[in-house]
UniProtKB/TrEMBL annotation:
Gene3D superfamilies: GIY-YIG endonuclease
Species this protein is from: Corallococcus coralloides (strain ATCC 25202 / DSM 2259 / NBRC 100086 / M2)
Protein name: GIY-YIG nuclease family protein
Length: 127
């Protein structure tokens, strides 16, 4: 076997392992330690979501203008990204889509933390 075959086999193995890896999905929070405010959201891929949010802040295009303004005012060091809850992957196919389960879980966290107004960046629920 040549070294080209080794690298091709190793590449193939890494690709297979990547496809089989469990993707962390769940509920996250962005916390501003300078003012105590919190943003709560859900993601089918928490790692990708945290990367996306950092990119949005860097490009000044986060979808919550007040959160973007505080990021610029206080700087990245004043914020933390936290996983509040994880949704376990299904053992068997079927059932409701994971996004529906995530929305229910997010509602529970929103009810618990109430990150609205002076306490956070989320929009309050409609009455």
């Amino acid at each position: 076997m040549t070294s080209g075959d080794d690298s091709r086999a190793a590449r193939s193995e890494r690709k297979r392992a990547y496809k089989e890896a469990e993707v962390p999905m769940g509920i996250y929070a962005i916390r501003c330690h300078a003012n105590g405010k919190l943003f709560v959201g859900h993601a089918l891929n928490l790692t990708a979501m945290f990367n996306r949010i950092r990119f949005e802040f860097a490009q000044r295009m986060h979808r919550v203008p007040e959160l973007q303004a505080d990021w610029e005012r206080h700087g990245e060091a004043a914020f933390s990204f936290e996983v509040l809850d994880r949704l376990k992957p299904r053992e068997e196919p079927g059932g409701p889509p994971p996004v529906e389960e995530l929305k229910v879980l997010e509602e529970m966290w929103l009810e618990r933390l109430k990150p609205y107004g002076d306490a956070g960046y989320n929009m309050p629920p409609r009455s």
